[in-house]
Specification:
Order of helices and strands: EHEHE
CATH class: Alpha Beta
Distance between the termini: 8 Å
Number of helices: 2
Largest sheet: 3 strands, antiparallel
Shape: elongated
Oligomer: single chain
Length: about 80
């Protein structure tokens, strides 16, 4: 099964990279863009067919390695 894991900063956590990207977009005349938050995405192939097991396994991977639970949150999409 293929899954995507999206890691983003939690609300309230400063995002200097996102702020710099927003400023660069404004300099390129994309004035309608009001905010940019940076994140990362993992595309994972997992040898499992049970969707609940996949979510549990990937949640465990996020908690242990893929995300920093203090400042980041994650979403799993199958």
């Amino acid at each position: 099964m293929k899954a995507r894991v999206f890691i983003t900063l939690k609300e309230g956590v400063l995002d200097p990279q996102g702020k710099a990207t927003k400023q660069a977009l404004h300099a390129l005349h994309f004035q309608n863009i009001t905010d940019v938050r940076m994140g990362k995405m993992f595309i994972v192939d997992i040898d499992e067919t049970d969707k609940e097991r996949v979510k549990q396994e990937l949640s465990k991977a996020c908690d242990l390695l893929l995300s920093n639970n203090v400042i980041e949150q994650y979403e799993i999409e199958l």
